[in-house]
Design brief:
By secondary structure, this protein is α+β, with helices and mostly antiparallel strands. About 35% of the residues lie in helices and about 30% in strands. It has a six-stranded antiparallel beta sheet. Strands 4-3-2-1-11 form a five-stranded antiparallel beta sheet.
Length: about 260
């Protein structure tokens, strides 16, 4: 009788243990899956991030850590991002190299992200950006997977406009530069609606595929219609648009709580 009672008690304990473990797994199955896939604990401030972007943020987190390590080249060359699109790959590689510069004045907490529906189509885009609101890359979701739209660096900069467009600056050097007004289309492609710039002192505007020469004053008048993308004003402008910086290693802007606690 004693042995029978003991066996029943053991059986009940085992059943309770199984139920407890099952509940823990069911509480946040996405966390467990990501931890198994990446081997990295899931910071609590990633919980609200769409599932499609979580793998991007973990890669981004490892990239930022690599930026401040002596083993940067080896870590980055292991394949942080690879694309068959040569332009995207080029811009991404330039972003990676450019991010390595000037680190003496910033820390890993200066790197973060923001979730923002750029074109108001119901799909939230992921912006990888620094605390000064310098955008590093923009992702959207396509067929439940992350899709890189573009990557940015010193000679290829971007900011998000209140209109839902993307304002881009390209510097080709030798007094040649241009600005583009882009939109994110329903098929997740980037369309350029207007370009205005300068080629070796000659100013121009391109609209509907037609290039027209303009005076420097006309160029300046066109440029004055948009925020100053090359100044610190872009930060306040994008904050006013609702784009809020979230640090990778701490809470939201102004929150000192650690995301890795």
């Amino acid at each position: 009788f004693m042995r029978h009672t003991f066996n029943k008690v053991i059986a009940i304990v085992i059943i309770i243990a199984i139920i407890f473990v099952g509940c823990c797994k069911a509480e946040n199955p996405d966390n467990q899956k990501i931890q198994e896939d990446t081997g990295t604990p899931l910071p609590h401030n990633y919980i609200s991030v769409p599932d499609a972007y979580k793998s991007v943020l973990f890669d981004y987190y490892e990239f930022v850590e690599a930026l401040f390590s002596d083993d940067f080249e080896n870590k980055v060359n292991n394949g942080f991002f690879k694309s068959s699109n040569l332009k995207l790959q080029y811009e991404w590689n330039c972003m990676v190299i450019d991010s390595r510069k000037g680190l003496q004045n910033i820390s890993s907490e200066s790197f973060g992200y923001s979730l923002y529906d750029i074109n108001n189509d119901g799909v939230t885009e992921l912006l990888l950006l620094r605390e000064d609101y310098f955008i590093l890359a923009v992702f959207t979701i396509s067929f439940d997977k992350p899709q890189l739209l573009d990557a940015y660096w010193y000679n290829h900069r971007a900011m998000i406009l209140e209109s839902g467009n993307i304002f881009v600056f390209n510097d080709s050097g030798a007094d040649s530069f241009e600005y583009e007004i882009q939109s994110l289309e329903e098929d997740n492609t980037i369309m350029v609606h207007k370009t205005f710039g300068c080629d070796s002192g000659n100013y121009y505007v391109i609209c509907d595929g037609k290039q027209v020469s303009v005076s420097q004053q006309e160029f300046s008048n066109e440029l004055s219609k948009y925020p100053k993308i090359l100044s610190d004003e872009k930060k306040d402008y994008m904050i006013d648009c609702g784009i809020l910086f979230q640090s990778l290693t701490s809470g939201t802007q102004g929150d000192s709580s650690s995301a890795l606690d």
